Amino acid sequence: MKSAMTSAPLRVAIIGAGQVADKVHASYYCTREDLELVAVCDSRLSQAQALADKYGNAQVWDDPEKMLRDAQPDIVSVCSPNRFHYEHTMLALEAGCHVMCEKPPAMTPEQALEMCKTARRMGKVLAYDFHHRFALDTQLLREQVVAGVLGEIYVTNARALRRCGVPGWGVFTNKALQGGGPLIDIGVHMLDAAMYVLGFPAVKRVCAHSFQKIGTCKNSGQFGEWDPATYTVEDALFGTIEFHNGGILRLETSFALNIPEQSVMNVNFCGDKAGATLFPAQVYTDQEGELAVLFQRDVADDHRHFRSMEAFVNHVKGEPVTIADAEQGFVIQQLVAALYHSAETGTCVEL
């Protein structure tokens, strides 16, 4: 593989030619003159060809091993279904490539840990597209937490909820391919953003409850149709994460839940000096009995995907920028697994 420090454009390949590969990965890579999209791989060769045609002259494959051997990319984006993240990331790392993998990292914590260790052994960058942490709002709130503005944060509420938002495309309702439902799809984003702002405190215990009440009883919603007979994921999951520092993080996530809002994607932090809301970023308290806003953005940053991809590429090129790295990806995968296990067994999980 070519060195990431060479002056020639870095060679980029994409595994999985679906929507996120198109709207996020390929569209970002093609904005940079220091990158060249040279290969697209998908089990559906026609879809790989459509993506390659849209963004230039990349060659196409339906076999990732052959693509890695023949195209010899420097960077690989893994945009395949969740079940294949581990396999495709490991292939790319072992081939000497830096990897940007879509969330979640894998299907199990064991896989995520092996991916992390392999990236270290190969001396390659492995990042995950937890893009909500790259919003300016998230960065600003993290700075406020580090500066002590909120004081001791002892309650965090993370919500990733939809009233009638079961995805009617892809494999989102297939547990075997996806690993789960709203928790592993949208809940994981707010979980990661919350943990990032908190500074990834050590976890003591996880307790959760999940429900499957709606997806198996109807076949359509805001995001299309699905087959209730093959709906094998949860509708909603509610969990509490207890930290060794005494604080708690409460997570609520759903594809289908009868709430007043159409959707909610946000995190609230409660500290002993002030509280905060993530999107748009706001910090508030009271001063001598009067409500006070200490900091406020009017509109949340909507360039999160762009900033996530930019951080990854710049990190590969040697710039000292923060990424959603392999170690933190392993922690998030541990929490997702613990939440699912607790919900399935009815017992709390000690970590």
From TrEMBL:
Note the Gene3D superfamilies from the entry.
Dihydrodipicolinate Reductase, domain 2, NAD(P)-binding Rossmann-like Domain
TM spans (from-to): none
Which InterPro entries has this protein been placed in? Gfo/Idh/MocA-like_OxRdtase_C (IPR004104), Gfo/Idh/MocA-like_OxRdtase_N (IPR000683), Gfo/Idh/MocA_Oxidoreductase (IPR052515), NAD(P)-bd_dom_sf (IPR036291)
Domain spans labelled Gfo/Idh/MocA-like oxidoreductase C-terminal: 142-351
Q: Name one GO molecular function term.
A: nucleotide binding
Q: One of this protein's Pfam families, by short name?
A: GFO_IDH_MocA_C
Q: Domain Gfo/Idh/MocA-like oxidoreductase N-terminal: where?
A: 10-129
Question: What superkingdom does the record give?
Answer: Bacteria
| UniProt-listed PANTHER family | D-GLUCOSIDE 3-DEHYDROGENASE (PTHR43249:SF1), UDP-N-ACETYL-2-AMINO-2-DEOXY-D-GLUCURONATE OXIDASE (PTHR43249)
Q: What is this protein called?
A: Oxidoreductase
What is the species of this protein?
Answer: Citrobacter koseri (Citrobacter diversus)
Lineage of origin: Bacteria, Pseudomonadati, Pseudomonadota, Gammaproteobacteria, Enterobacterales
